[in-house]
Inverse folding.
């Protein structure tokens, strides 16, 4: 098979993968197509076209956020077209699960941080309501807490109907980032009979959680320079390839079509991966995250 045929096959495969990754057919999509095509109403009261456009935009944004790792395939296809080789496309396909794991880890970290912030806000809100004269059960039942995970739903129910609130709080605190609810449960167990004492305990819990978060953010800011240096070193080989191509050296042809180039490509990839892993381990150890990436 000629290089041109391989390139066109790579382009077609890339287009098919991208279309399959972003397409999410469903009942609402079919209804939107029916309305936009003028085929009649899809229900008793169809929404306005502007609403369908907004829903389609949100759906595309959600699909992009959920399947961003598939962008490795078009990038690999682009390099395959430029280098007339199928190897970059195969590398892009193999990079999809790696990027998916990395994105999932980042999403879990953001979820933990959002729950930690939600616990701090919950403590402050309930403490303020208690000092205003409200009962503990009423304050907790109406405090919100939608960002505290699925286990939080049992806490307002226990507060409204006289259940075991500390037990429900400890169960909700077992989720990632919600460990502060264990302190709330301890304060509730000790001082539930006196609203003022519970308010003081919740304020101390919120202050401790806020101090822990501030310390972690300060340490993260101090390590930002190291992370930036590692990222710059990671993209430096790509910049060197671009400079070589601009000078007419044809680095992709050398790397992808000669034995010495393939050997250098494999060795350089291994060294790049080892350097990233080593730098990441150093940063995690300095940040106190070597045990699993944060508290859960």
């Amino acid at each position: 098979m000629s290089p041109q045929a391989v390139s066109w096959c790579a382009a077609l495969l890339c287009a098919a993968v991208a279309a399959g990754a972003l397409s999410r057919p469903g009942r609402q999509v079919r209804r939107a197509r029916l309305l936009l095509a003028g085929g009649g109403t899809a229900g008793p009261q169809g929404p306005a076209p502007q609403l369908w456009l907004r829903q389609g935009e949100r759906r595309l944004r959600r699909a992009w956020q959920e399947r961003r790792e598939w962008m490795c395939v078009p990038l690999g296809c682009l390099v395959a077209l430029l280098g007339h080789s199928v190897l970059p496309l195969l590398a892009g396909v193999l990079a999809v699960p790696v990027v998916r794991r990395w994105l999932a880890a980042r999403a879990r970290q953001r979820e933990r941080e959002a729950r930690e912030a939600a616990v701090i806000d919950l403590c402050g809100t309930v403490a303020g309501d208690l000092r205003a004269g409200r009962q503990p059960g009423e304050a907790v039942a109406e405090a919100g807490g939608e960002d505290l995970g699925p286990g939080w739903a049992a806490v307002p129910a226990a507060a409204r109907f006289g259940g075991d609130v500390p037990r429900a709080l400890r169960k909700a605190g077992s989720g990632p980032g919600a460990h502060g609810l264990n302190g709330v449960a301890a304060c509730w167990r000790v001082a539930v009979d006196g609203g003022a004492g519970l308010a003081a305990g919740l304020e101390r819990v919120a202050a401790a959680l806020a101090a822990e978060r501030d310390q972690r953010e300060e340490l993260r800011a101090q390590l930002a320079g190291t992370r930036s240096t590692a990222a710059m070193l990671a993209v430096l080989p790509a910049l060197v390839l671009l400079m070589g191509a601009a000078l007419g050296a044809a680095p992709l042809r050398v790397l992808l079509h000669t034995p010495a180039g393939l050997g250098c490509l494999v060795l350089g990839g291994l060294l790049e991966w080892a350097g990233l892993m080593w730098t990441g381990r150093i940063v995690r150890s300095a940040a106190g995250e070597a045990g699993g990436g944060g508290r859960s």
User: Anything to note?
Assistant: The CA atoms of residues 116 and 214 lie 12 Å apart. Residues 87-131 form the longest helix (45 residues). Confidence is low (pLDDT under 50) at residues 21-46, 290-296.
